[in-house]
Structures are given as C-alpha cells and as structure tokens.
Amino acid sequence: MSASVSAKRGAISLTGITRIFAGTIPAVDHIDLEIQAGEFFTLLGPSGCGKTTLLRMIAGFEAPDEGRIVISGREMQGVPAHKRAVNTVFQSYALFPHLNVEQNIGFGLKMQGVKAAERKKRVDAIMDMMQIGQFATRSAAQLSGGQRQRVALARALVNEPEVVLLDEPLSALDAKLRAELQIELLRMQKRLGMTFVFVTHDQHEALVMSDRIAVMSKGRIQQVGPVLDVYEKPKNVFVAEFLGLSNIWAFEPVSAHEARTAIGVLNIGENLTGPGMAMIRPEKIWLYSDNAFEAGRPNMFLGKICEAIYMGASTQYRIELQCGQFLTAYDTNNQAAERSWRPGEAVAVELKPENIMLVEA
Amino acid sequence: MSTMVQSEARSRAWRLWLTSGPGLFWIILFLLLPSGIMLGIAFFTNSDFGSPVLPLSLSSFSQVAGFGILGWTSANFTVLIRSLLQAGIATTMTILLAYPLVFFIVSRPANLRPVLLLFAIVPSWTNQVVRTYAWMQLLNPFAPVSHLAQSLGLIPPHLGLMPGNFAVFIGLTYNYLPYMVVPLYAAVEKLDWTLVEAGRDLYASGPKLFFNAVFPQTVPGLLSGIILVGIPAFGDYVVPQLLGGDKAMMLGSLIASQFTFSPDWPYGAALTIIMLVFTCIGLVVFRRLTQRLGGGEGAML
Predict the structure, then answer these.
(1) How much is the pTM?
(2) Domain A3-241 of CATH type 3.40.50.300
C-alpha cells in the first residue's frame, strides 16, 4: 500500500497495534491493517476476539500499547477522541436522554462551534435523508429501536466525519428490521462515500454489507480480503468455520492433484505440496439419486441421508457416506432442483475438484 | 361472577390499606395534625404569659410581617432572608464539596467505594448537637484557626470565628454534607459512561464534556440532595443557636424562642406556618424541575 493511498481522506492505516489489558494476554496482538478510503470494512469475529478494542483505539477511547494508527495520513498518537474526525455509532446507541432527537443529532456540531442557523440546516438535511424528521422533538426514550438506530447514525453522519465506526449497531434489533437497516446503512455509505468500519460477530451480516472483511480471533487477524475471497477461499480452518458451515478433512498427498482423506482419495484442483486440510462448502456439493452413481468416477461417493433440515430456500442435509464419515450439503429448493431427499434415502454426492479449497489448520 | 369481582375488589382495597395505612397514619398523626393545630393557634391572641387566648385575630401574622407596638421593623425579614441565604449558601457549598468527593469515591476500586462512602456518612451518625459543640471548640477565639484568622487580619483580635454567620455557614455545610453526598453518589455510581464516550466522540472535552454529558445524568441526584440539604438547613435550630449568636439568628431559633424564653405561642405558630409555606413552595418548584429535567429518564421507566 503506497503512502499516497493511505493519506487519502478516510483511509486508515494500522501498524503493529497491540493492546494488553490488566492480564498478560493481549486483547489486540500486533495488528497490521490498511482500510481504504470510502470502503465498507468489517471486523468480524467471535466475542472477545479484540474487534471492539481495535475499534475503540481507532475512535481514540483507548490508546494502543504499541503500534501506530494513521487516519487520513495523520498520525493519531496523542490525539484525543474529541479531536479525531471520526464518529462512532455505539451498540447501545448512547443517545443523550436529556436531549431530544434534533439536539442529539446537532450535539457534535454544537460542540464544534457551528452556528445555530447552519446547525439547523445540516440537522434538518440529515433528518430528511434518514426519514426521522417527524421525531425531531421527541426524546430518545420515546423512540423504537430502529428509530434510535437511525438517530445514532444521523448523529454521526451529520458531522461529515472522515471515518464512521459502527460497533454492532444492529445487534439489538429483530431480524426483519435488521435486514432492512442493513440495506439502508449500505446505501447510505455508498451514497456518502465515507469510510465505514463495522464491527460484528454475525457472519451473515458481514457478508451482506462489506466490501472487505477482516476475520479476527484471539486478538489477531486471521484473514483480510474481499467478501467473496474470505468466504470462498478461507485461509484457515477458523475462517472457514466462522463464515459458515464447511466440510473439512485432513489429507496426505498421493500425487500433485490427488489427496488421501478420511472419505477416500479426492482429486483437488490446486497443487499439493504436502499434507494439509481440504475444505468444501455444503452448497458446493452436488447431490444425485443413487442410480446416477458411476463407480470409478473421481470425487463421487455413495451415501445415505441421515437428516434433512428444511430452511425455506434450501434444505440442509447430513449425509453418511459408505465409509462411515459424515458430510453436510445444501440443496436449493428452486424449480431447477432435481428433487428433495428424505432421511434414509440413498444418494450419490460429487465434490468437484475446483470447489475443494486448501486451508491451513 | 359478580361476587368474585366484589371479593377481588375487597381484597384489593384491603391490600391498599395494608400498604399505605401505616404511612398515612404516621403522616396524619405527626405532620398534618400538628400543622393543623399550629395553624389554629396562629389565629388566637397572645395572653400576657404567652399562651393562646380568645379572641381570634390576625395579629400574630401582622407580627410576622414586622408590625409591632413600636411600628414596623425589618428584623423578621432580615431573619427570613438570612435563613434563605444561609440555607442557599450551605447547599451550594455542599454541592461544590460533594461533586469532587463523589467522583473521587466512584473512581476508586469497587471494593473500596463503600468504605469511603461510609467515611463521608459516619459523622452524621453522631448527634448533631455533639458535632456542633465540636465546631464551637474548633472555632472559638482561642482555637488555632481563630488565631490564624486574627493574624491574617480577617477578624478583629481576641474574637473567634464563632459566634457569627461564618460559623453557622460552616456548621450547616458540615452537618448536611452527607445528605448531598449520598443521593449524588447514587446518581454518579450508575452513570452511563458510554454517554461520556459519546460526548468525547462528538467533540466535547473538559468542562463542555462535564456539563453536556456528565452533569445532566447527575441532576436527579443533585435535586434530591438539594431538597435533603436545603429544606432542613433553612429551618435548622441547633447550628444557629450554638454557633450563631444574636446577629446570626435564623428562623428556627426565632420560632423556638417564641415557645421558650419569650413565650408568644400564636406568633411562634404563625412563624411556623410561614416557614411551612416556604418549604412547600420550594418542594413544588423542585418537583417541577425534577419532572422537566428528569423527563427522559422518567419516560424510560
């Protein structure tokens, strides 16, 4: 990453960031990360992985014990939170209970010394954009969860910050509202072109919203990359499992493209250099009725359906292969789907070589 | 069906009496009844021995307003204004002392906090008279503090820091400080620090951060503190009596003397009623303020 790119308004550059709390185990452990200007970047990981601590260090609520934070080309060491052109949407929204919606949104502008007339103009504009104008004089306590979330977002956006930090802002909402606001948030980000750094533990949410994802575990980044890469080509077992269901087997190479695994010998698209782990996503597994089975065809196995979980658009199957191993497969329930399967039925499965990915342990 | 509804209504009424009855009884017996008697006495005429006799008149109230045999004097107004001022200044002082103290306590480790809070409260467990006598010792003309004040030229030589208004102010502040600390502590302890972070995030710092993100959260505690300190300080008797002297007389002492040294019951009763009226006005004003300022929190519950 060249210096000119990370100096762009809204770009964030983290180098060697470490934060150790009272104990000795680092909450954030030597993290290097480049977040580009204007991208929707997600920090994804289980609770306690350090993603919120990292976000709080970008916001300036906490100082790293080691490392540098550079935002828009400016070194942030010693710059307190109130002097950073960064605004946060808190998990609890943190709306001021003694102020109404309008005053909450105008708070940042007021503190920056923006004159009342200008302030009103900008607050009105953002309330229009977020469609919360009708609540202007209500107190935060009189709003629903979704409305509060909008106010919290408006309160951050109205300041036109270089970076917007979002700490699991949708986690308190019900599923439907959550899905709506995900899309709304995404549209808002694309429209304003601001850098959004979004923290979540919900892999689905991360996939829906992000341009790029950093998957974190135990204070370290496991993988950074575009959504598609992180999901389709996970670097290691943790990333593969955290982003969705997967079938993973350890293997020993037999030849450059053949690997011996617990379910038998698999043809693999990638070059094999030594023992490792092979992974395939459930939706990449082809399911046929057992009479389509061709003995000797590579990567095809016979099995029996043990469990079929209907999930609406698709069905999740647990299949016991003849060798006694289990695998998980999805089949869509669209019109093109061959048919659906019931427990006890015999099936043939095919794992296409190009869909099998090598992952680190 | 209707009997069931009736019996349910009866049991609800029974529960209502069981819960509110004792309190109601107490308030009637020890607040409303005595106040009513006082109000009655205030309309009698004073006998030569200070006891209330017929005919009924308003003379005690005109006495309160300052009219006597020798014409109008401002003495009562002075006492009233002094009482309000002393209560106001002492309350302000307890606020100024309590805020830093409370934030100091809250910033300590959680297991230390109750102990520190206890240190602030423990003095109030001893009798107010005893504590006020201690201040008499501390502020008398021969005490080191008085010597210091004398040598700095703050008071004339050979005089002490007591008796006088200053001593009353010190005594009131000291006596009522715990009643400010406790409600304020309760408010500060459950302070939502995320709001403080939100304030910092939105470009507030220093005093701006305190007054916009911290202070509003403490207002409910502050208002209870003001009521708990201001109202009793306004009517305090022990402190002005022991530390005040003639020139620092407050309403409490003035009332007490009407029932003791220079008996005039109707006049004393009228003074008491006036004091009650002031207290009630104060309470109503604060109730309004609490509702307005704490509106957000109230609606959240």
Answers:
(1) 0.81
(2) yes
